[in-house]
Amino acid sequence: MQAANGVKNMSLAHEIAVDSEFQLQKHQPKEHSIEKQVKEVMHRAFWDSLSDQINADPPHFSHALILLQEIKENLVSLLLPQHQRIRSQIAEVIDLDLIRQKIDNEAFDFNYYAGFVISVMAQLCAPIRDEKISALKEIKEVVPLYKEIFGLVDLMKMDMANFTISQMRPYLQQQSVEYEKKKFQEFLEMQKENNIDGVEVTKAWLQRAFDQLTKQQSAFPVTPLNILNEAYMELFQWDRTKILPETLVMDVGRYSDLKSQTDHICLVSAILLVTYNTIGAPISGITQFKHEIKDKISIILKDLHDSEIAEKVPNVVQQILTDVGACLEKHGYSRLRDDQQDLIKGQVTDVINPQHSVHQLVRSRMFGFILQSASSMHHSPMKLPAGLSAFEAEISQVCGQFIRLISHNRSVFGVWYSNIIGELLKQNKHESDYEPEQANNPPILGLGDTGKH
Q1: Which has the closest alpha carbon to 312: 324, 328, 301?
Q2: pLDDT digits 0-9 by tens, 19-29
Q3: What whole-number distance in Å separates Cα of residue 250 and Cα of residue 180?
Q4: Which pLDDT does position 8 carry in this prediction?
Q5: Residues in contact with 202: Cβ distance below 8 Å, sequence separation at least 6, in sequence order
Q6: Which ranges of the chain have pLDDT less than 50?
Q7: Are residues 268 and 298 in contact, defined by beta-carbon separation less than 8 angstroms?
Q8: What pLDDT shows up at residue 443?
Q9: Which of 390, 401, 396 is CA-nearest to residue 369?
Q10: How far apart are CA 22 and CA 12, in angstroms?
Q11: What is the DSSP string of 217-281?
Q12: What is the predicted pLDDT for the residue at 447?
């Protein structure tokens, strides 16, 4: 349980650090779940009981006191240090001892306190809640009014929490690297106590990258940084049925999204490439047409599982033939011959296969560009490879998000990566490329380990 709580805290700190738009969301039980049913029954019982009490003859107000006490606590929780006047007003008006006296003297007025609470909420709420505040003023029945007050107070508490996060985000980002390091070390120690290797999957992941790099004999030498970059690139081809390395699980959703985006870009780019190779010069220089047909094909193939893509091929082919025919006619060329249409249909049908040579070529260019971007120390823009120009904006976004993720990841887990890669290099007699890490020194990877972003 302690380990789980530590991971939860680490996950929250990580989300705040890497996601500039991160916000807390109110927990909503799943539809038809036991939790939802129990919550609804309990809430309904309370409000039904309150209604019965205030409509009794004579009325009872034990539930009303509980209600006002909770409202008072919630309002106070929304206050900032500068809200001293409002704090005093709440303490003065929602004085439970005074309210009990009013009840005993039959002078208690639910609507008076509702009006005061709404006036305080109006001063504290975000502008986006103004419409809901106005709606409260139109409710005349006591129980429905207080139910809506409670619902809006819950939203205001969430607003305040998210406002606090936004104000503290720069500080949290500065501190998150060290905090995540500390929590991950605690997690590893707890795993060790149970005879579990907390980085077992990470070791296997880096081993594969090392093996791949040594087999390639490419322009990239077998260095710690290149091994790690090779490992990061595997994430674009990760089998979603397998768990990610322990050092990456906080971003499993983000890496999965990046994989989906690059798969989509490669698929549509491959279709465009065979289309342009078939038609040739008549459409090759028309930039606007390339973007228009790219957008239409992207819409047809958006958010599809691999098994569903083939079913959409006829739609894609029809869209291509229609748009290409119209473009040729617009620019004074003859419409496509039957044999050209059959050729396009056949090529599009074939190229959707990820193993197709053109698809593989586009994928290789795409990942080569991303790897170069992630490895480059230059800030000047790099030229996109041929066949990918239609997706310049999308690829730029993918590269930016990917680099931010791996930069933060290196900063947090660089020490563990250094130790694992160091062992790999020593075991394979690459000591000349590796200087053993000294205790408490920065990791040998050399990038993104300052904790500043």
Answers
A1: 301
A2: 667 666 766 66
A3: 11
A4: 56
A5: 245, 246, 247, 248, 416, 417, 420
A6: 1-6, 430-444, 446-453
A7: yes
A8: 46
A9: 396
A10: 10
A11: T-SS-S-HHHHHHHHHHHGGG--TTSPPPTTTGGGHHHHHHHHHHHHHHHHHHHHHHHHHHHH-H
A12: 42
Token pair for residue 153? 């107070």
Which of 234-243's residues contact partners 24+ apart within 8 Å by CB, and which partners?
234/205, 234/208, 234/209, 235/259, 236/262, 236/367, 236/370, 243/201
Three-class DSSP labels, the chain: CHHHHHHHHHHHHHHHHHCCCCCCCCCCCCCCCHHHHHHHHHHHHHHHHHHHHHCCCCCCCHHHHHHHHHHHHHHHHCCCCCCHHHHHHHHHHCCHHHHHHHHHCCCCCHHHHHHHHHHHHHHHCCHHHHHHHHHHCCCCCHHHHHHHHHHHHHHHHHHHHHHHHHHHHHHHHHHHHHHHHHHHHHHHHHHHHCCCCCCHHHHHHHHHHHHHHHHHCCCCCCCHHHHHHHHHHHHHHCCCCCCCCCCCHHHHHHHHHHHHHHHHHHHHHHHHHHHHHHHCHHHHCCHHHHHHHHHHHHHHCCCCCHHHHHHHHHHHHHHHHHHHHHHHHHCCCCCCCHHHHHHHHHHHHHHCCCCCHHHHHHHHHHHHHHHHHHHCCCCCCCCCCCCCHHHHHHHHHHHHHHHHHHHHHHHHHHHHHHHHHHHHHHHCCCHHHCCCCCCCCCCCCCCCCCCCC
Q: Tens digits of per-residue pLDDT, 166-198?
A: 777 777 767 788 888 888 999 999 999 989 999
Q: Supply 35's token pair.
A: 């939790």
Q: In this structure, how many other beta carbons lie within 10 angstroms of the beta carbon of residue 95?
A: 14
Give the number of other CB atoms < 10 A from CB of residue 415.
Answer: 20
Q: What is the pLDDT of residue 84?
A: 92
Structure tokens, 6: 């530590």
Residue 279 to residue 337: CA distance in whole angstroms: 11
Q: Nearest Cα to 111, choosing from 149, 83, 77? A: 149
The Cα–Cα gap between 152 and 316 comes to: 48
Question: Residue 313 in contact with residue 349, Cβ under 8 Å?
Answer: yes
Residue type, 193: E
Beta carbons of 330 and 336 less than 8 angstroms apart:
no
pLDDT of residue 448: 41
pLDDT at residue 451 in the model: 38
The answer to whether the beta carbons of residues 406 and 254 sit under 8 Å apart is: no
DSSP code of 324? H
- Are 450 and 411 within 8 A, CB to CB? yes
Closest to 15 in 3D by CA, of 128, 158, 162, 200? 162
